Amino acid sequence: MRRPLMAANWKMHKAAGETRAFFEKFKPLVERADHCDIVIAPPFTSLAAAAEAARGSNISLAAQDMHWEKKGAFTGEVAPGMIRDAGCEYVIVGHSERRNFFYETDDSVSRKLAAALDAGLTPIVCVGEKLEEREAGATELVLTRQFFGAFSALTASQFSRIILAYEPVWAIGTGRTATPQMAADAHRLLRKLSDERFGTEVAHNLRILYGGSVKPDNIKGLMAQTEIDGGLVGGASLDPDSFAAIVNF
Ligand code: PEP
To answer: Which residue's alpha carbon is at the smallest distance from atom 7 of ligand 1?
Structure first.
């Protein structure tokens, strides 16, 4: 049985004060939620406030991105050790907004992944097709390319430490959700690729989250699919009641 995980991706929302206010409301709403892992990814500048507010709770923190080098002349970047030091256990890698707006490639995703694992972080790696790719019948091709682009350099033991997130780009922030069936089909493909590359046990234990307009009113239907192990939630994670309703699906 895979343990569900609900992750909040706050993107470029919530300064430190708003972060503290969120945690104050959110913590009591999920304090009994021992059925799943809860992860919140605030912007870098709010990590210190989040770490302070989450101390002693059942909520873990993620960074939304990182660089693969340990240190150096990389203006504007943040190193894996720095985000660990700021209180993160997880890091999101390869989010479609990084891929599409900031030219993240499969190669940089793969470097970040290796560096995150090296630093003892758990990477949440995002893959997903664009609308035109789905409409052209290329979903399987795109997911397969992203899968091998990100993971082919990993050993089975390294791969067993990652979390995958299937996020169809056309469903992110659009209010259009993949049907539970569509999501489950994509998850099945990703698990099959994991099985072929890393073996049955590793594939069976791999947690695959769905992301793309997850809301309190669709999370139950999604989680009813045995293939779906949790959610990566953007817009609906900004409100404590709404994200708590998702956690407590
Ligand atoms: C995301 O940011 O990964 C996401 C899925 O956003 P939203 O829930 O707003 O679609």
So the answer is: 234
**β strands within the chain, DSSP E:** 5-9, 37-41, 59-63, 88-93, 122-127, 163-166, 207-211, 230-233
Assess whether the C-beta atom of 219 lies below 6 angstroms from ligand 1.
no
- Rounded CA-CA distance 198/203 in Å is 7
Long-range contacts of 29-32 (CB under 8 A, 24+ apart): 29/240, 29/241, 29/244, 29/247, 29/248, 30/58, 30/59, 30/244, 30/247, 30/248, 31/57, 31/58
* Cα 211 to ligand 1 centre (Å): 6
Q: What are residue 175's phi and psi, to 5 degrees?
A: 80, -5
Does the domain made of 57-229 have the CATH classification 3.20.20.70? yes
Cα dist from 22 to 2, 29, 41, 89, 169, whole Å:
28, 11, 13, 20, 27
User: Per-domain residue ranges for the chain?
Assistant: 57-229
Tens digit of pLDDT for each residue in 86-133?
Answer: 999 999 999 999 999 999 999 999 999 999 999 999 999 999 999 999
